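Progress against Task 2.4 (sequence-to-structure conversion) is shown through the following example record, which the project officer requested during the mid-term review.
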Amino acid sequence: MFKRTQQYLYPLSQYFHLPSIKITLSNKMKTASIALALAAATSTLAADTPLKPLELTNLNAGIYYTSMPITTLFSFSLKDPNTDTNTTCSGYWSAGMAGNKSYDCSDKAYQLHLLNGVYNIEKFDLGVSRADGSISGQSTVTGDSWKCDKQESPLAQCKWDGVFKIDVTGSS
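C-alpha cells generated for the chain above:
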C-alpha cells in the first residue's frame, strides 16, 4: 500500500557554499531525481559571481622633460585572480598622439589602454581588458602614492607604492 522511500542529504554547501539540498525519493526515481538535483546545483554554480579586481604591482612611469610633447614610459605587473593569470604590460605614450592608444601585455589575452593625456603623472586614467572582451576595468591613478626619483636629466623615474586595484566588470 505504501511505497518505501529513502532520504538522502547532499551537503553541497560544504563544497560550493550553497544551502544543503534535501531529497526524498522512491527507489524507482533515484536516478532521475539525483540527475535533477545535480542539474539544479550546476545551474546555481553557473550563476554570475562577482569578479575580483585586477591587482597591479610594480607600476612604473618614466617622464622625459626635454621637449614637447612630453612622453611617458609606463609598465606594471598584472595579476588577475579571476583567471589565475600573471602578466606584464607596458606602453609608450606621447602627449602629441591623438585619441586612445592600446598596447599588448605579455599575455596576449590582456590589453592595456592609455587614454589621451596620460602624460600627467599626477592623475591619469588607465584601463585593462581581456582581448576577447570578457572583462574590462578602468580606474584613475592619482599622484598620492607615486614615489619619484630624479634620474640623470631629463628623466624622472616614478614607482607606485603598493598594489593598485582595478575593479572589473564582465561583458553581458
